[in-house]
Amino acid sequence: MLKFVSRDRETPTKRNPGVRRRDFDEIYAPFARDRAAAQAARCSQCGIPFCQDHCPLGNDIPDWLKLVAEGRLEEAYAVSSATNNMPEVCGRICPQDRLCEGSCVIEQSGHGTVTIGAVEQFITETAWEEGWIKPVKPAVERAESVGIIGAGPAGLAAAEELRKEGFQVKVYDRYDRTGGLLVYGIPNFKLDKHVVGRRTEHLEKSGVEFVRNVDIGKDMAFGEIRAEHDAVLIATGVYKARDLVCPGSGSAGVVAALDYLTASNREGLGDKVDAFDSGELNADGKKVVVIGGGDTAMDCVRTAVRQGATSVTCLYRRDRKNMPGSARETANAEEEGVIFEWLAAPKAVRGDAAKAAGIRVARMELGAPDASGRRAPVEIDGAEFDLEADLVVKALGFEPEDMPALFDAPELKTTAYGTLRVDGETLETALPGVYAAGDIVRGASLVVWAIVDGRKAAAAITERLKDARTRPLAAQ
């Protein structure tokens, strides 16, 4: 250990931009065993592990880095998976530069952080290859059942934790495949779909039952689920896109980011997608402008490049330093030919209702801090310019659906932001025995935070159902 002075930071080999922009394969090669061990040996094993403190899951990062450096990979996986239900997913898509790696002590000392995410992915991929990941077999099967609404990361993490306790678990989802945004929102070049499918199969073999193609509140009443199960977890995520408010925003050719990404992912999975085939949700041969600065915007610009767009531009109203998306993803997009217009905001979509032809853009500057503490963008008078665009993608973030109305459950309480109001300790909603986790509680956030919430809710449900003094939900 402590090799950070003599060994530099090293990442897995990254495919050439000119090659990778022609396909949707993951852009990083797997770490070779010796390189992963060498990188893990750079860990300083500091007395106060800031990497662990800044991991939402509190992963025991120094411990499993030490085990990797010593070649004890099965033990490393045992430590890694003890706090994380999907370490191979987090290793790929977590913004480590803002979390564990950004807090690494040796990074702060100028030696370059340990490549934590890549080592985490290496550990779990090795565990799959070696057959160390076994289906969950609880010591005792319990009669109580839990219904989970939503098969995204929060719902999947909760399902696994509840099965470990022996509860009967049924997961309901509106989509035809399990994984939520992991499948339909994140492109393959960041997270290959077989990675999510493998976890789904693991849960099915562990006894989790999946009910797909069922939209709660439409195809099945929320009350039916409450009647069937002893506890219910709402883990639906947030899918309502924030709209673009400017003249011409309703023109054909202005599309929502999730619609665009879902069409691309479905096409890649072999589905027939009429809107993709017609060109409505396909960037091939088009000038594309993506509005937004988060990870969803980065997914959109990099997808457009791979679909054969003639040009791809990203508009963001603040500067690079204040961009909410991952710095790594922004750099990858630039390598692949994406043009960034910083301090730029749309004023109007040019063209007509039948076809967008471009965007009138206002140049911005950062003014005084707003209520969030961030410096607010302010338009510079007379500093407008035009961009050509055949396809405009709105990647402005997501808001929650009206869950009380959708589920016909006015007893569910919401916050001022429309998210479900829960007890901070247990994640229980205003309805006894009904819990909520993930983005539907905290707003659009990271996959790792959804896993945190799923585990937390599962622990609270377990405590409730094992407490003989608490009446099961189905009996109320």
TrEMBL record:
Q: Which UniProt keywords apply?
A: 4Fe-4S, Iron, Iron-sulfur, Metal-binding, Oxidoreductase
Q: Which stretches make up the FAD/NAD(P)-binding domain?
A: 146-451
Annotated ranges, domain Dihydroprymidine dehydrogenase: 20-131
Keyword Metal-binding assigned: yes
Q: Which residues cross the membrane?
A: none
Quote one Gene Ontology molecular function term: oxidoreductase activity
Q: SUPFAM superfamilies, alphabetically?
A: alpha-helical ferredoxin (SSF46548), Nucleotide-binding domain (SSF51971)
Stretch forming the signal peptide: none
The cross-references to Pfam families, in alphabetical order and at most eight, read: Fer4_20, Pyr_redox_2
Q: Which domain of life is it from?
A: Bacteria
PANTHER family given in the database record = GLUTAMATE SYNTHASE [NADPH] SMALL CHAIN, GLUTAMATE SYNTHASE [NADPH] SMALL CHAIN-RELATED
Which protein is depicted? Dihydropyrimidine dehydrogenase
Q: Which organism is it from?
A: Hyphococcus luteus
Its lineage reads: Bacteria, Pseudomonadati, Pseudomonadota, Alphaproteobacteria, Parvularculales
